[in-house]
Amino acid sequence: MLELKLNRVSRMYKVSSRQDAGSAGVGEVRGRRTGNCGNQKMAVDHLEYTFQKGIYGLLGANGAGKTTLLRMMAGILKPTSGEILCNRREIGKMGGEYRMKLGYLPQDFGYYPHFTVRRYLEYLAELKAVPPKLAGDRIETLLQETGLKSVGKEKIKTLSGGMVRRLGIAQSLLNDPEILILDEPSSGLDPRERIRFRNLISALGRDRMIILSSHIVADIEYIADEILLMKAGKITESGSLKEILQSAEGKVWRCVEPPEQAEILNRKFTVSNLRNTEDGRVSLRIVSDTSPAQGAVQIPPNLEDVYLYGTGKTPGTSKNSRSG
Hints:
By secondary structure, this protein is of the alpha/beta class. The chain is built from 11 helices and 14 strands.
């Protein structure tokens, strides 16, 4: 049985007194205060969760801690406190044994622009100790599955951004990993490529653990067996799509208003959708704890509504009424 467990995992960063706590590119610390370096930020805050086989989708705003968490699970960063266990063993002590189980695609993965697509995959297969007899067949399969077969002899520097992203997905699968960690894997893919990606991940998720983050709510909605919402380094909601949607039940409203009133509502509330109607009015989909306007009717939530509500983008009944 495959299991990856977060045991009160935390990660802290130092933040200069001149920086906002949510800024990127800050250094890393372990203490409570950092002297001349300023204050600290808790990027990941005492997380406890157990992953098993299946597809897990991680949703959260920029700065929620998603990338930091995935980098720790990939063994690139060490937790400030707590531990990550693979089948009850701490991953930092497993060394190469854990890396053999792991496939990882960071937001920005490194590559040699003058390498051809095929040569790059051959090179990484060697680094990942994929047996030569298996590497050739594996590369052929991945080129086919990721739609890169026709550009196998092309240099990477000539590829489009979407193709480079597909190459990143292919390299993460070279060692046929049991655990696949993907940070924003569909970034840069066009709609057709995203569909291809979702189908590939759905097929792979039948017999392995896949953990992915995405800003594209539809990708998570279509393929994740379990959805985790992150805010300020904490997991605020987790469960199946059906379970997650229940958290926003009774908090999504539809109303049709004149343009002037629609503008007021758009400033005051979190509007997940707005469109003009044929009679000159404006139809608004609003996420709010209470009715935003006279005549507003409750409608079923979707994952985008839950994302806005659960990540704190909708402050209670209006944009200024809920703290935190």
